[in-house]
């Protein structure tokens, strides 16, 4: 969509530069571009190489895991992922002052809501395989879980020594499933617009300790819509126009953008009854650095957390 393409139709010019400009001017510090297949991971790395504030993941989404066997040589396909991850790590060390371009393995996991794309047995096989990738390159994991908590946590438990840490992003499951994830001390829960649709979703989010939470947009998807229960807490607004009336000074209506992560912060603060959203943002930013940018965890970063430690 950031190329102006919607369902194969060119609606406007590519505007990634404008999207990134809005993000940086809105206070976004870094962006992780997610890979969902081998080819997407290559594209994500190419994007990450264009700006020192951009990073990426390497991995295969659960709904795409058939690509391993469709390739004709699943092990060769896996080794291509290993090579790509190592390439991104080394390139980043040269160009970005010791910050790797590739900062996580993923997006990987289980999605039982969309078994028509890939059956459960294939998903489980290659979810587990990608822990081998995380272990090989010593990176955290960017994880996906939909309606699959039991199998997901079983696999996570068997492989807990093979990855340093990770986040289950775009969390939409139940309070019980939340608590299963929180039982893993090195796993965080990621919240975006899809996590904030219903009153029940908001209750689940209220039960996530802030020190185990991250926020994201998952753009161009998962925006906070006017029909969502969480919208009542949104304070920040951007001018928007339909894609058919594209204006580079406006966000495209119905398309999520990184700058809108501020709205996710506002809803999380609102539903948890936290008055100091700025302090909440510092804690969540610290969580993100702890997992994906551990080289930045120093006394200055820790100093951000000196105040208001009673935020829950």
From TrEMBL:
A molecular function GO annotation: metal ion binding
CDD domains according to UniProt: TatD_DNAse
Top-level taxon in the UniProt lineage: Eukaryota
Gene Ontology CC: cytosol
Residues that bind a divalent metal cation 2: 144, 169
Binding site for a divalent metal cation 1: 107, 218
Keywords recorded for this protein, A-Z: Hydrolase, Metal-binding, Nuclease
Secretion signal, residue range per the UniProt entry: none
InterPro entries assigned to the protein according to its UniProt record, in alphabetical order: DNase_TatD-rel_CS, Metal_Hydrolase, TatD-like, TatD-type_Hydrolase
Homology family: Belongs to the metallo-dependent hydrolases superfamily. TatD-type hydrolase family.
Protein name, per record: TatD related DNase
Species of origin: Papaver somniferum
């Amino acid at each position: 969509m950031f190329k102006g393409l919607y369902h194969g139709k060119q609606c406007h010019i590519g505007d990634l530069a404008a999207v990134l400009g809005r993000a940086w001017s809105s206070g976004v510090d870094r962006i992780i571009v997610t890979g969902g297949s081998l080819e997407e991971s290559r594209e994500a790395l190419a994007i990450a190489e264009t700006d020192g504030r951009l990073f990426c993941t390497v991995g295969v989404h659960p709904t795409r895991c058939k690509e391993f066997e469709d390739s004709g040589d699943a092990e060769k396909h896996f080794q291509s992922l290993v090579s790509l991850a190592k390439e991104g790590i080394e390139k980043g060390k040269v160009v970005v002052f010791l910050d790797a371009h590739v900062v996580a393995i993923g997006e990987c996991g289980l999605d039982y809501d969309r078994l028509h794309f890939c059956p459960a047995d294939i998903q489980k096989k290659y979810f587990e395989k990608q822990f081998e990738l995380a272990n090989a390159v010593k990176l955290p994991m960017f994880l996906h879980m939909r309606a699959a908590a039991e199998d997901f946590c079983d696999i996570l438990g068997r492989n807990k020594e093979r990855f340093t840490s990770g986040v289950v992003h775009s969390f939409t499951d139940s309070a019980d499933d939340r608590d299963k994830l929180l039982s893993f001390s090195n796993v965080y829960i990621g919240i975006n617009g899809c996590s904030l649709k219903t009153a029940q979703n908001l209750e689940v989010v209220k039960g996530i300790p802030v020190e185990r939470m991250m926020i994201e947009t998952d753009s161009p998807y998962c925006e906070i819509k006017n029909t969502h229960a969480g919208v009542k807490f949104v304070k920040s607004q951007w001018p928007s126009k339909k894609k058919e009336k594209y204006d580079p000074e406006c966000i495209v209506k119905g398309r999520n953008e990184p700058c809108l992560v501020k709205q996710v912060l506002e809803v999380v603060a609102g539903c948890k009854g936290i008055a100091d959203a700025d302090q909440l943002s510092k804690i969540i930013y610290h969580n993100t650095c702890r997992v994906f940018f551990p080289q930045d965890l120093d006394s200055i970063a820790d100093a951000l957390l000196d105040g208001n430690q009673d935020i829950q």
